[in-house]
Design brief:
Strand content: over 45%
Oligomer: single chain
Radius of gyration: 13 Å
Order of helices and strands: EEEEEEEEEEE
Largest sheet: 7 strands, mixed
Low-confidence stretches: none
Mean pLDDT: 96
Distance between the termini: 40 Å
Shape: globular
Number of helices: 0
């Protein structure tokens, strides 16, 4: 049984930092990604990383967020710095197999976590 479990969400002030984690069990994913969804908005891809270390970021988070993963522990991380109120959302971890070069924070993913809430106050 495949399970993705996010953690690390919290309430912070603008300018603060958070580190999200996503532990995957039962699945060895080549491509993993973070998405977010704020109330009343569409789900947005934030960042992705394949098991070879290639990364991709949404323009809105470039320079502030860093995605990383521990392949041995099958864990994905998202370091979020300089948080803005517009970063507030439910953050979801996703995993899937993709061909090399096709791991990006968009399109269909086969497995999803239940999300972790990030709140940013101004």
């Amino acid at each position: 049984q495949v399970q993705l479990a996010e953690s690390g969400g919290d309430s912070v002030q603008a300018g603060g930092s958070l580190r999200l984690s996503c532990t995957v069990s039962g699945y060895d994913a080549f491509c993993m990604a973070w998405f977010r969804q704020a109330p009343g908005k569409e789900r947005e891809g934030v960042a992705s990383m394949d098991s070879d270390g290639r990364t991709d970021y949404a323009d809105s988070v470039k320079g502030r967020f860093t995605i990383s993963r521990d392949n041995a522990e099958n864990t994905l991380f998202l370091q979020m710095n300089s948080l803005k109120p517009e970063d507030a959302a439910m953050y979801y971890c996703a995993a899937d197999h993709r061909r090399v070069g096709f791991c990006y924070p968009g399109g269909p993913f086969g497995y999803w976590g239940h999300g972790t809430q990030v709140t940013v106050s101004s």
